[in-house]
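Tokens for chain A. Residues wanted.
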């Protein structure tokens, strides 16, 4: 029998896809090793790491001789390999809804939050990024007014919720966005957080510690 290998996650707390994967691994109590790369110091561009991921980005998951970058793909791989059916969606229609929101995220919340956070790290502002994010949150607010408590209309969170939550909560930590006009988004965020008792507090604390050090 082949010897089992421990998963290795290349991670940084300000990489929100990295946080999503860490949430799933910790909540599902999957044994893994974390290798922290300080993106602010450019460690993701080191010769050693570029041998792991020539794209020079985190997150990256290593499972034996299998190397997988890209947060959404990693979430799906972990949930599939470990038979985490509720995180993937229990049936084809629910899985399609999960994929819908994961795909939407890349051109909406992910793109717009990046436009907000990157300038904030160097004490600048991006008005276009703020407008794009407000549009994304308004879309979420409308959707969550018709389904709930989670994005795919499920009774427990899926990997779609895990992928988007860190993009949302980081803006509160950085003080970059007021969610008061979006009560459904705030309720959703709270519901996802409360569904992650083993993983969320430490996950958020790592980001908060980084922001406090700026």
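Reply:
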């Amino acid at each position: 029998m082949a010897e089992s290998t421990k998963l290795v996650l290349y991670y940084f707390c300000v990489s929100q896809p990295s946080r999503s994967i860490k949430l799933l691994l910790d909540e599902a109590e999957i044994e893994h090793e974390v290798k922290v790369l300080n993106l602010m110091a450019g460690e993701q561009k080191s010769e050693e790491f570029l041998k792991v991921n020539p794209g020079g980005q985190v997150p990256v998951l290593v499972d034996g001789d299998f190397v997988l970058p890209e947060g959404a793909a990693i979430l799906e791989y972990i949930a599939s390999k470990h038979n985490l059916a509720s995180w993937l969606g229990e049936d084809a229609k629910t899985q399609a809804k999960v994929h819908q929101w994961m795909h939407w995220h890349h051109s909406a919340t992910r793109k717009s939050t990046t436009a907000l956070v990157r300038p904030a790290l160097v004490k600048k502002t991006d008005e276009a990024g703020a407008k794009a994010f407000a549009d994304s949150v308004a879309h979420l607010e409308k959707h969550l007014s018709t389904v709930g408590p989670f994005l795919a209309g499920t009774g427990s969170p899926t990997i779609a919720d895990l992928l988007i939550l860190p993009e949302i909560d980081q803006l509160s930590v950085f003080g970059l966005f007021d969610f008061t006009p979006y009560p459904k988004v705030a309720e959703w965020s709270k519901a996802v957080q409360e569904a992650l008792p083993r993983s969320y507090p430490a996950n958020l604390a790592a980001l908060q510690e980084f922001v406090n050090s700026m």
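The domain at 7-85 is CATH 3.40.30.10 (Glutaredoxin). The chain has a mean pLDDT of 93.
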